[in-house]
Design brief:
With 215 residues, the chain is an alpha/beta fold. It is built from ten helices and seven strands.
């Protein structure tokens, strides 16, 4: 069994990507975000365009992320239960490496398996790159690509997420857990896709045990 889990708004209660842009990006990022939410851009294209507007150093942004991130209750205990039971737990996020790694390190989980956007800090802003499992640059479908790759390695595959960027990957999973009242939950409900909802990670473990027929 493999669990693929989103980061922003899922592992964390708050969306650190949005908080960073809101605090540090120059004007114009909201228009790009609106175009993404309306379907005019992929999440990969959107993040590339928005993060080039940030000029702060990696250290400043990481410090902000460590201070502001609110980890969803039950996360670490859930991960430990998964690993003890032999369940592979993988974070796949359209978020960025520098703040995801800073937050995970800050909560004592720096060794988790994570696939996310790679960043380069330049004088002209942050350059964002998405690579598929074969190392090729992708413009769309980052999460779906990793789900297909993980599925080849084991199944069933459980997906955990909260937002629009999780929808397509969630459709391809065997089981889905969506944050209660989040955008993913609403999209799945409107499209009559079966899923579980959760508020914190303690809510998920009983269903995972049942799915995996664990003691």
């Amino acid at each position: 069994m493999i669990i693929q889990c989103d980061f922003d708004g899922t592992v964390t209660l708050n969306n650190m990507s949005v908080e960073l842009r809101d605090r540090f990006a120059s004007r114009g990022w909201q228009e790009v975000e609106a175009e993404y939410l309306q379907g005019g851009l992929t999440v990969e294209q959107s993040n590339r365009q928005q993060y080039v507007l940030l000029r702060e150093s990696r250290e400043v942004l990481q410090r902000f992320a460590r201070q502001k991130a609110i980890v969803r209750p039950g996360f670490l205990s859930f991960v430990n239960r998964c690993l003890t039971a032999g369940i592979r737990f993988v974070i796949v996020s359209s978020g960025l490496d520098f703040y995801i790694k800073a937050v995970l390190g800050n909560i004592g989980a720096p060794e988790l398996e994570v696939y996310c956007a790679q960043t380069s800090f330049t004088g002209d802003g942050i350059v964002v790159t998405y690579l598929d499992p074969e190392g090729k640059t992708v413009e769309r479908g980052f999460k779906e690509g990793y789900l297909a790759w993980l599925r080849k390695q084991d199944n069933p595959l459980i997906y955990i997420g909260d937002s629009l960027s999780d929808f397509d990957a969630a459709l391809a999973a065997d089981y889905v857990f969506a944050v209660n009242c989040g955008r993913l939950h609403r999209l799945l409900s409107v499209n009559s896709v079966s899923h579980y909802t959760f508020t914190d990670f303690n809510d998920i473990w009983p269903q995972v045990r049942q799915i995996g027929e664990l003691p």
